[in-house]
Design goal:
Helix content is about 5%, strand content about 45%. The strands form 4 sheets. It has a 7-stranded mixed sheet, with no helix packed on it. A hairpin with a 2-residue loop joins strand 18 and strand 19. It starts with a strand and ends in a 6-residue tail after the last strand.
């Protein structure tokens, strides 16, 4: 593994442990605050569903998807699938010789079995920012680019409840075949700040929220924890929160923003969730 790839391991913790966490412990456990490092591939290997969250930002030279010691595999995708969403300048991903051009907010699914994956930016001065999610895979499906026109779009919320938003379902089983990975991009309309309200949890899979397009000086307060024992983490632009299966997730920003959600687990039903209205939260 070269010095252009960095990773860390986060072990799973349960509800009882988290009840005693202070702010620093909560952030160290669940906040991903080293994403989008120029000229580097960065990963967090999480023990929730063996889910991995990461980024690749190629600048003046391409970046390779290298295997990690933690994977004990010759190639990164020997036993995994990979979801990629670009949130930066135009870029290209080459997988086993096949080129996929990705503009901003376009996605790419790479199946189990790809051996060589390389990330490129079209303009190093405006680099692509590839946001990465990966999960274990039992079957080799087909690589597929998902453009904006391919997404299944849900229009939810309202201005009255400050949560008017478009949910772009990019990697769900009605758009692309995957083993367990699902990803999408939600953008809040101007004047709306609440995401995923009512809050929900799904005990059959984990979820990771990556917040971006947040103006300088602004923040999102991400809520997590059990419905009757909530916690919060303040998140800056291009940071993510790892949400365990036992935790709710919702958030409110000091301005409008966008976020990418990524999930893995035993259920591919997007609507499989347990909702908790605001008056039930504590």
């Amino acid at each position: 593994m070269s010095n252009k790839t960095e990773y860390e391991v986060r072990y799973a913790v349960g509800q009882r442990e988290v009840k005693g966490y202070d702010t620093t412990e909560l952030r160290d456990t669940f906040l991903a605050d080293k994403l989008m490092q120029p000229g580097k591939v960065y990963w967090i290997y999480s023990h929730y569903e063996r889910f991995m969250v990461g980024s690749a930002v190629p600048t003046d030279s391409p970046l390779a998807l290298e295997t990690l010691d933690a994977l004990k595999a010759e190639h990164f995708l020997d036993r995994r699938e990979l979801g990629i969403i670009n949130v930066g300048g135009d870029g290209t991903v080459v997988a086993d010789g096949e080129e996929f051009a990705l503009a901003a907010e376009e996605a790419l699914y790479l199946a189990k079995g790809n051996k060589s994956v390389t990330f490129y930016s079209n303009d190093p001065a405006k680099p692509a920012k590839f946001y990465l999610n990966s999960a274990p895979a039992h079957h080799a499906f087909t690589n597929k680019k998902i453009g904006r026109e391919d997404a299944k779009v849900l229009h939810l919320g309202s201005q009255e409840t400050s949560n008017e938003r478009d949910i772009n379902q990019l990697m769900i089983n009605t758009v692309v075949e995957t083993c367990q990975l699902q990803m999408g991009l939600t953008r809040l309309n101007p004047g709306s700040v609440w995401n995923t309200m009512p809050a929900h949890q799904h005990d059959r899979r984990n979820e990771v929220y990556f917040y971006f397009d947040l103006d300088d000086g602004q923040a999102v307060c991400h809520f997590m924890g059990e419905p009757q024992e909530t916690r919060h983490i303040f998140v800056q632009n291009e940071q993510a929160v790892l949400s365990p299966p036992w935790s709710i997730h919702c958030g409110v920003g000091t301005s409008n923003y966008a976020f990418i959600w990524g999930m893995a687990g035993e259920n591919l039903d997007y609507g499989d969730m347990d909702s908790f209205p605001p008056n039930e939260l504590r």
